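To: structure subgroup
Subject: Chain for Friday's discussion

All,

I'm putting the inputs and outputs inline so they're searchable in the archive.
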Amino acid sequence: MKRLSPIISFILLFILLSVLIFVPAFNAFAKEIEISAVVDKTSISVNESIDLTVTISGGKGSVDVSGIQDFTVISHGTSTRLQIINGQASKKTSYNYTLIPKRDGDLIVPPLPVSTDRGIFNTKVITIRVSQKPIEHRGGNDVIVSSDVSEQNPYNGQQITYTFTLKNAVQIHEAKFQKPEFSGFSSKEIEREEPYRTVISGREYIVTQITYILVPLKTGKKIIEPAVIECNIVRRIKRGGGSSFGSFFNDSFFNRAGLETKVFKTSPLTVNVKPLPKYSSDIKFSGLVGNFKLKAELENNTLCVGDSTTLSVIIDGTGNIMDAQKPEIIIPDRFKVYEDSPEKNITAGKTGFSGKKVFRFALVAIQQGTFTIEPVRLVYFDVDRDKYKTISSSPFSINVIAPAKKEVLNLFSAAPGSLEPQNSLKQKVKFTGRDILQLKEDIDSLENKKPLSLYVFILFLAVPMAFCLVLKIYFVFMPAGKNAGPAAVMAKRSENALKKADKIKDNNVSADEFFSCLYKAVVFSIFSKAGVKGESLTYKEAQNFLGTSGFSDETAKQAAVLLEKIESARYSGLNVDKAFKESLLAEIKQMTRSLSR
């Protein structure tokens, strides 16, 4: 590969340096020029002065102050600040002046022409109030506080925002904010944003805002008390006396700073909370106020008997979403329904609470066929239209089919006559050989053996006992073998469920788990007698199973009643005492014993 000549290398280096130097400058030039003029005070006495700053952002220029007639203008030169961040240049040039009033009254700083390389721009008019009497600057326009609400006449349950605003044109320290009580509302402060700068009547302020989300709890007239802020204001104390030329010494060398503690508070606010309009419909009102959407999803619409699918209902929107409750869902009784805890994803922002709530339901099919889940409907109050609105999901069709492979209990019986032995032992005993060891008849030929030690003797006894113990543990805790028939498997499961129920009846566990064990004990016992595997049964199915298995109608009906009693206690939501648990457990034990005979 040829090396580049020195001349070409120099040209390439020059081009690279030009790009690095002039591109940021070009970016700065390409930006729109911004002109601003601000003063440090808008109310002074005739013996005071004010500071005027004219700033040019995004370019260069010159300021014409010849139009200022009401003040003596003294220039303090210019200052320039250049920043380059990620290749973007930001340049600001400030022209600093001191203005000394020539008289009292409302004096004007007229629009000042600023000449730039992209034209002439004018600043805004600034009005200065000059008084003959000395003015004590006690934070009048130096610090401004205010508060407001986004809606003064909300509906009950409609969220609104309360915003406290602090504007300070002077430096403050150790600000302490005391929020209102918000009586009659639930309140939540949202994350605070960074302060920003703004110009009001020719004066620059730093603006800080604190926002709360309020949700009315009752109707009627509500008063939001004033918000209070306490802070230390930094004051510059001049040593130049009252002379009008004291402004010449307006720098840190001739001045010292002092702190003045001030307390500011906002005006009280009145909010009239309106009741919701009268509602009349067959669909239950959800209590939601705002704007919402509803969506339902079904994980799988084709499944086998005993399998499960998940139905998800999603409520999404802005308003009191945190108060959303489980919507009414009509599910065919051929499914067992298990409800999961709702999933919440809610955020608080400038517009209030927004997000979604997800309700999930596990549906277990207990009978084959084609079933329909009706549309899920939700009624909420639409604050934009001032009326109730009904939203709904699409209906679902579920096809439940029989299991792909049924477990069948294979029974084998001997063929007729096969119980007789094929070859009876009627042959004569034949002599096959002599003993390997010779019998010893002489007493002297016997040998004495050393007796066993105690430890060896204990070991000989312990080994069989340990072996038996291991076998016992294996048969008690290990599940039924793969080759065990459905009847044996179901019987073992019923026994384990009953033992677990007996164990947890006195413990501080949920009643749902106790009743679940009882339900399994009865159902598994019924499946055991039928010789099939399964997980759940309806009352009628249980009665039919036992009837076809040879049990009396009384026993079959008693088992169905027990299942209904367990389900009723499990899903009623009522607290059950220890006596009820023990009584029901005794009934289940008696039933399983009668079924095992």
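Points worth raising on Friday:
The longest helix spans residues 6-30.
The chain has four domains: 29-131, 143-272, 279-401, 477-596.

D.
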